[in-house]
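Entry for NDP complex. Fields follow.
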Amino acid sequence: MAGREFCAFLIEEQEGRAVASRRNLTTEALPDGDVLVRVAFSSLNYKDALAVTGRGKVVRRYPMIPGVDLAGTVEESTVPDFKAGDQVVVTGWGLGERHWGGYAQFARVKADWLLPLPEGMSLKHAMSFGTAGLTAMLSIMALEEHGLSSDEKRPVVVTGAGGGVGSMGVAILSRKSYCVAASTGRPQLHEYLRQLGASQLLDRQELASDLGKPLESERWGGAIDTVGGKTLAGLLRGMAYGTSVAACGLAGGAEFSTTVFPFILRGVNLLGIESVMCPQRRRAAAWNELKQIPSSLVEMMTTVVPLSEILPWCDRILAGQVRGRVVVDVWA
Ligand code: NDP
């Protein structure tokens, strides 16, 4: 079949810099794979912003179509598990890093990266969750597997709460009836975070300030940390005995300096969360749980942008100015 022409957001390396532009390509130019997907939506994540601006070493080969996730409809398939017309989602697996990703109207991917679109979810709704929703849900699953339960009366902290993973974390935890303490550097988001279900608001500095003590009072019953750096060290000092921190991000820095006291005197668990290579069975379980989150909450945290506006939104995300989730409509 002749190749189809489509529009893509491509980044190329020119004189050591990442240069982005909108381009018309044909499906023949797409990489090898079992399934050709007509992409409907992708999303804008912190990692995508690093890739597009070239400010982080995310892209492993150029030219690259960024977009670490996508939702769309199968156009052609060489495998029996997926047929033309099936609606699917893909997150991770090197999309937008090693393999052309979601910022294009078509993508060709391996069949074993695909999950069927969860029942009752639209393609747009799926990308409102996207990598951020999956990561927040994987974090909560890990916390619950390590003992967090609805008996916990102390607050569960979410850091970087105004961002994508953070907003999702607040909404899901509160839906599960946990008492949520949302940490943000933006007081203007307090009302939004309350609407997502936060019952306590913390100023970002409260966790990041080092008071010179290796341990503080046992304040927190669990935590999702999207910020890293001093914030993660501060969180660990205030964790209650036997509780866990799900560490998934580094928006505030990759360095990590603390003492062993939270671990050896409080039995605190530090759980690493990784959504890119996470096994398909666990992803499917997480997506199944995401179905329970009301679409009104998801709508509230979502902004939809066209391919032509990706660049300014990348700058905003890296400046910590984006609220919630940004969904990319690749046909707008
Ligand atoms: P966002 O940009 O949407 O959110 C990050 C939030 O962190 C901001 O909204 C802001 O929240 C806070 N923040 C930003 N800069 C700083 C700073 N310098 N110091 C302290 N806080 C800051 O990003 P995402 O939610 O998409 O991703 C968050 C992190 O999680 C990133 O590091 C990303 O790479 C990582 N991630 C990891 C995944 C995994 O599989 N482990 C998957 C997805 C993301 P506020 O203004 O409310 O304080």
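NOTE: Residues 123-145 form the longest helix (23 residues).
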